[in-house]
What does this fold into?
Amino acid sequence: ATLVRVQRGGSPSAQTEGKLTLLCDAKTDGSFLVHHFLSFYLKANCKVCLVALIQSFSHYNIVGQKLGVSLTAARERGQLVVLEGLKSGVDVFFRPREEPHPLQFLREANAGDLQPLYAFVRDALQPVDSGEAAWRCPVLLVDDLSVLLSLGVGPVAVLDFVHYCRATVCQEWKGNVVCLVHDSGDTEDEESDVLLNGLSHQSHLILRAEGLATGFCKDVHGQLRILWRRPLQPTTHRDRSLTYQYKIQDKSVSFFAKGMSPAVL
Amino acid sequence: MAVAGTSGTGTRSTGSMVAAASTNNVTSFQRRGPRASGADSGCSRLVSIAGTRRSVRNGQLLVSTGLPALDQFLGGGLAVGTVLLIEEDKYNIYSPLLFNYFLAEGIVSGHALLVASAKEDPADILQKLPAPLIDHSYKKECDEDICGHKMESDIKMKIAWRYQLFPKMEGRPVLSSGFGHDYDISKRIPQELIETSKWHGFFLPEKISSTFNVESCSLTSGYMKLLQFIQNIIYEEGFDGSNPQKKQKNILRIGIQNLGSPLWGDDICCAENCDASHSLTKFLYILRALLRTSLSACIITVPTHLIQNKAVIARVTNLSDTVVGLESFIGSEKETNPLYKDYHGLIHIRQIPRLNNLIYDISDVKDLAFKLKKKLFTIEVRENFYV
It folds into this structure.
């Protein structure tokens, strides 16, 4: 099964817009989820803003090609806006300018808030009524939020940023927001825990990639837990959740029920 | 430009199309294939840089760590544009060896070096590098093989790269196009090799005494100065593609010793809740940014055993690409354990990056041990461990 079918299979009344999806990884690398959502939304003709903080654009581009989308083409036709954190980070760090820059917190001794970053997102996804080919809903994709903590931004500031993005992208423009956060596990990273818990409560959908408890395995790379939530509403029924195991391949990820890996059967 | 998205090395590198418009089109993350940008003096095939090779899995440009055995467990080598973090062993006996192998490999391959240390003068570090093993019976063959046959010898190397694990050497180590060499750590590197190499040194006590006023940006001034130094070298020497009229492309190997130790002005090794807690992580982020946008590869050694804050170690790991931990048996209970009697310590490969790929090259072998012999640092798979 592919991730798209797995995702849809969960909620029968799937309203696909205005949602915050939280991607989370614990003791493993969950970046394959980011690549999936990126190609998924581009193929669905949505306008996407990718805040790529830890890898270069060409990395996403090359993986995107394997998944069947061309990021450079999407960028050229205006469907995709990318903030290359690494490239513009070097820019703002060594050649500071007067005007606000989305990553200006890199230069600050005490990183304040992420207002300029929010402004960038807002300007990037602002719906234009110029009569040209209208994209479907706007989507914000952030890879990843945990690195902001390493750069001196406090967890509350990050939560504020997500809140502002949700208010604008999800509520006002009926778009989606997808963020990746690392679960720091037992490393007693308080800031990371605050961020993860805060986001979990706000999310409609949580995809959590975990390494197997028994350690590394060649045929099963990890486990994916999917949790459908209805945040901020009294839950009359329980949140639905499903667990799959997965194996990442060169151009796709295959999912199977626990213990049903083709290698085992 | 419609891309069918099918695999194969024939896929056009769309990255180069866009990049031609901007000044920066030097990144190692490009597929092998015809380059439309023509920045490479019209060569229809990517001109290979000495001492590098392409990964068989995804065409990623790799350099050798200096230890062919370690290259093998890292998926073929260290990817250009990435950071190799070595978690120092407790008494810092073995990690300098890996550091030195990396630098020696750079000299032998003709790469430029940037050596940074807060403890030891880089000139002294270079003096102590191991000597490459040269097999003289191949010397004559190689003298005939220069330049005109360089392409062919590249092809030969690609097919037979596994055989580089055996001590076979070109007779002209400075212009060696081989990948991965063997070294004799009981001998010092010949002086003339150091002199003909291009290296830059950053010795913190010298730099910090200058009165140059540095803005803090929440980095310790040592880190700030080092970043500026690195950025300067990359820009001036054109490793980021900013001087396209420069001659042949080359790799810059950066080596930073004991990062995070108090000698750098950082206190993460001293206190659990330290003041400069974001200094090192911010440094690593900017370092990653500099590496990703240039033809360079970096090795850093960090005394992680001294860092008390586990969260910081996790963050440092996340901001590095490849992470290798060294655990020596000295002073531990394992020293007298008969299971470990043949070895001096363990090597833990904690992280391997996924670059331009959903998957990564990871060998199945997880239990590695090392032994320091008189002339060689060997890495072996622990076979007889399981009962």
